[in-house]
Specification:
Elements lengths: L20 E14 L2 E14 L3 E5 L6 H8 L7 E6 L2 E2 L5 H11 E4 L11 H12 L2 H21 L15 H13 L5 E5 L7 H18 L2 E5 L3 H4 L4 E6 L2 E5 L7
Parallel strand pairs: 3-8, 3-9, 6-7, 7-8
Antiparallel strand pairs: 1-2, 1-4, 4-5, 9-10
Helix pairs in contact: 3-4, 3-5, 5-6
This protein binds adenosine-5'-triphosphate and magnesium ion.
The site of adenosine-5'-triphosphate has 12 residues, from strand 1, strand 2 and helix 1.
Length: about 260
């Protein structure tokens, strides 16, 4: 690609680099078969997420936010349209490659945590590494991953909760374990679907503080769904979705 800044002469200020697109949905449609009817939920969505930005997606209940997040997180396939992760068209890959890409590039945090009930907090945080490697490779790398998980869980205030099962943890604690799990493999992208939706306000704020702190220090591209206007104000970009379409996007051109 030709960099336009190379054409800038010395008198004019060099133009800022174009933001790097890390995740994109293009013309995404999703319909579901319900009985003998087909319901179209997403009607051709275009959305791009840029490197290190904090994007908040809002919209009424039923607008299609979770449906879109599941597609952008490679958990669901669009009926039509493209999804690109760091410019790779994911539905042109085979399943194994796509799973590897998802595991390496995208962390996902759910409203209801989705931790495995039989595993401890520490084991839950280690899950992405278990999935990423064969049993033998995981064994050889286990100590390194364990140190990493311990460091995060301790930083998240869970040093005394490592062997607790999810059922023995509060909602806020479970969500912090889920965030550690999502970040274990250092993905550049983090998708969070109402991560504080099941928590009281004070607990939710603490979880969000932690999420934003990680976003900042790691330079994560964060795509966050929330119904809470106050939380949305902490994002640099707000996108509104209604009836399966993007209605508004606060993104303004990067100043030159
Ligand atoms: N698997 C499915 N089969 C049929 N309909 C579905 C399916 N998944 C979602 N829908 C429908 O798609 C619409 C959008 O759902 P979605 O969960 O994406 O909304 P949302 O914007 O996340 O809402 P909320 O804010 O309540 O979480 C809803 O009307 C829902 O009933
Ligand atoms: Mg939802």
């Amino acid at each position: 690609m030709v960099d336009s800044s190379t054409e800038t002469n010395e008198q004019t200020a060099p133009s800022q680099e174009a933001p790097e697109r890390v995740l994109a949905a293009t013309g995404v449609r999703r319909s579901f078969k319900v009985g003998d009817r087909r319901l179209e939920i997403l009607h051709g969505v275009d959305l791009e997420l840029y490197r290190a930005e904090r994007l908040c997606l809002m919209g009424s209940s039923g607008a299609g936010k979770t449906t879109l997040l599941n597609i952008l997180g490679l958990l669901d396939r669009p009926t039509e349209g493209e999804v690109e992760v760091e410019n790779v068209r994911v539905w042109q890959l085979g399943q194994a490659q796509r799973s590897r890409l998802r595991n390496a590039k995208i962390g996902f945090v759910f409203q209801f945590y989705h931790l495995l009930a039989e595993l401890s907090a520490l084991e839950n945080a280690l899950l992405p590494a278990m999935i990423a490697h064969s049993a033998a490779t995981f064994r050889s790398k286990r100590a390194g991953y364990t140190n990493k998980a311990l460091e995060m869980l301790t930083r998240f205030g869970l040093a005394e909760r490592l062997t607790h099962r999810p059922g023995q943890l509060s909602g806020g604690e479970q969500q912090r374990v889920a965030i550690a799990r999502a970040l274990l493999l250092d993905p550049p992208i983090l998708i969070a679907d109402e991560p504080t939706g099941n928590l009281d306000r004070a607990t939710g704020e603490k979880v969000l503080d932690l999420l934003f702190e990680e976003q900042e220090t790691r330079g994560l591209s964060l795509l966050l769904v929330t119904h809470d206007e106050r939380l949305a104000k902490r994002c640099e970009r707000i996108v509104h979705m209604e009836d399966g379409l993007i209605q508004a996007d606060s993104r303004t051109p990067i100043p030159h």
